[in-house]
Amino acid sequence: MSSDTEKHQQLLSALRAAQGKGDGSFEEAVTRAFEHVFEHLDRLHSHVSQGGPDGEDRHLKPGESPTLR
User: Fold this and answer.
1) Which of 29, 53, 54, 64 lies deepest, with the highest CB count within 10 Å?
2) Which helix (H) or strand (E) holds 60?
3) Cβ pair 67, 61 in contact under 8 A
4) Comparing C-alpha atoms, which of 5, 10, 27, 8 is closest to residue 18?
5) What does the pLDDT look like over 15-42, one tens digit per residue?
């Protein structure tokens, strides 16, 4: 199993375990889950956005759909 899949399972387990406790653990688990989501989004953005430091869109490759960037 990939370490990322394991991480997802750990995050979900932490959320389930913390539900209804009222001690702040649920908020901590949500924060960790969102941090992980943002890591994924950063990696995705880095992968698809090769436009440079100013963030401009890169040119489409031949046959590439603009909706799949």
Assistant:
1) 29
2) none
3) no
4) 27
5) 999 999 999 999 999 999 999 999 998 8
Helices (H), 1-69: 3-18, 25-48
Six token digits for residue 21 = 């406790």
Split at pLDDT 50, 70, 90, the class of 60 is confident
Across the chain, what does the average pLDDT equal? 83
Which is nearest to 17 in space by CA: 7, 28, 3, 6?
Answer: 28
Answer for the pair 53, 61: CB distance below 8 angstroms, yes or no.
no
Q: What is the DSSP letter of 39?
A: H
Q: What is the pTM of this model?
A: 0.64
Q: Is 29 exposed, middle or buried (0-12, 13-18, 19+ CB in 10 A)?
A: buried
